[in-house]
Amino acid sequence: MEWRINKGNTKCSVCEKKFEEEEDYYSALFDEDENFTRKDFCATCWKRDALENLFSFWKTRIPKQGKPIKKFVNIGLILDIFCRLEDSENAHKKNLRYVLALYLIRKKVFKFKNLQKQEDKECIVVQYPREDKEYYVFNPNMSEEEIESLTREMSDLLEYPYTEQGILNNV
Fold first, then answer.
1. Residue 94 and residue 85: Cα distance in Å, rounded?
2. Which pLDDT score is estimated for 6?
3. Rounded to an integer, what distance in angstroms lies between the CA atom of residue 129 and that of residue 60?
4. How many domains does the chain contain in total?
5. CA dihedral in degrees (59, 64, 68, 72; nearest 10)?
6. Residue 134 and residue 127 in contact, taking contact as beta carbons nearer than 8 Å
7. In what order do the strands lie in the sheet with 111-118?
8. Which of 22, 85, 89, 158 is most exposed, with the fewest beta carbons within 10 Å of its own?
9. How far apart are CA 106 and CA 4, in angstroms?
10. What average pLDDT does this structure show over 4-17?
11. Domain carrying residue 95
């Protein structure tokens, strides 16, 4: 299963107005038919409460021309998506949750606790020290290539080099 991935747009998904230099806009992930899609909205068209299947969103800004582009990963957004995928039965989303757990371990947001067998499946146990909470993540036994592919998909889906830190919003 592949997501219908589109990178950050240069215009609003609703009114098709082109985003201007230093303009704020909203990027949103939608859970549609067991797939994630991304859409971008100008401030005028952004109506969070009227959007069906809204999964998560963040506010971003078009940079000033000539200014270097700063890319960073919003750990809060990654953690939010990880938590929202907890009860999903969709195989692709389970795979994504596993990759996000590995990423959060690598970034030292989670601490690896141990491996367990649950329901005859291998499960990694991670701790989120900030909230003193443990998460159980089933290992889908993906190949390195599958993990790399999923990581690239997620990177493309969430690409938002202009996001202002600290402006993460959850549904």
1. 7
2. 54
3. 29
4. 1
5. 0
6. yes
7. 111-118, 121-128, 133-138
8. 89
9. 27
10. 77
11. 1-171
Please tell me the pTM assigned to this model. 0.61
The Cα–Cα gap between 135 and 61 comes to 33
For residue 118, which phi and psi values (nearest 5 degrees)?
-135, 130
SS3 at position 64: coil
On whether the CB atoms of residues 160 and 25 are closer than 8 A, the answer is no
And the tokens for 96? 């994504």
For the stretch 30-86, pLDDT in tens is 887 767 788 899 999 998 877 888 888 888 888 777 766 555 567 888 898 899 899
Amino acid at 98: Y
What confidence tens digit (pLDDT) does each residue in 108-162 have?
Answer: 999 999 989 887 889 999 999 999 999 999 989 888 888 778 877 777 666 644 3
How far is Cα 104 from Cα 111, in angstroms, rounded to an integer? 8
Whether 3 has a pLDDT exceeding 50, the answer reads no
Structure tokens at 112: 């690896």
